[in-house]
Write a structure and sequence with these properties.
The protein has four helices and two strands. About 75% of the residues lie in helices and about 0% in strands. The longest helix has about 80 residues. It has a two-stranded parallel sheet. The model has no long low-confidence stretch (mean pLDDT about 95). The chain is rod-shaped. It has about 240 residues and is an all-alpha fold.
Amino acid sequence: MSTRGKIEISTELLRTLHRIHRQLTDLRSQIARGPRQIQAGETMVAKADADRQAAHDKLQKAKIASDEKQLQLQSRELNIEELKVKLNVAASNREFALLKEQIAADEQASSVLSDEILEGLERMDLLEKSLADAQEELERQQTEQAQRVSDVQQKLKTLHSERERVEAELEVSEQQIPAVIKSEYKRIAAAKGEDALAPTEADSCGGCNQTLTTQVMSTLHLSQLVRCPNCNAFLYLPEDRRVR
């Protein structure tokens, strides 16, 4: 137990200081949460944008492939027409037969190519739907993010104002701390925040659960400064424990 002689300090003051430090911890936590919420929203917007871009790229790739096959089909159909012209002026039966075989083969290939083009067009319909859905999701995420940023900024404004009020309340309360321990209290509070103080709980430190001796508890009942021998917190009796 770390004390410097018998230093009297109000139990009510210690309770008040701890309450205020807890308020500040909660306010600072909420303030820190705001930017993280905005960042999480930005991540969702970025993902939606990446999904939209991926859907766009797939559609463009499918369109290019379809256009290439359309050109192939046109070229093959022109070639078939040229072969038919040659067929009409074939110089021999053999040449006629070869041309017929070539035309049949090209027509079969054109039929397969036509089927592939139709399948590609159907796939493009699905890809266009996927792109539209992705665009809609991106716009939804952007709208929600804009609202989120507005809400967080408004909340942060309120939280900062509340923190300033509580910090001012803490400053007033700290003026009541005995001068002999004030600098030590300030140092520990700056390092540990609300953990610089702790109530007793069933004759134990409420901060670290260290069992307290009868002497420590008796000293607390006399409204004298006591520090936890384990975690060094400023101890105080909870409201359901009377001070002598």
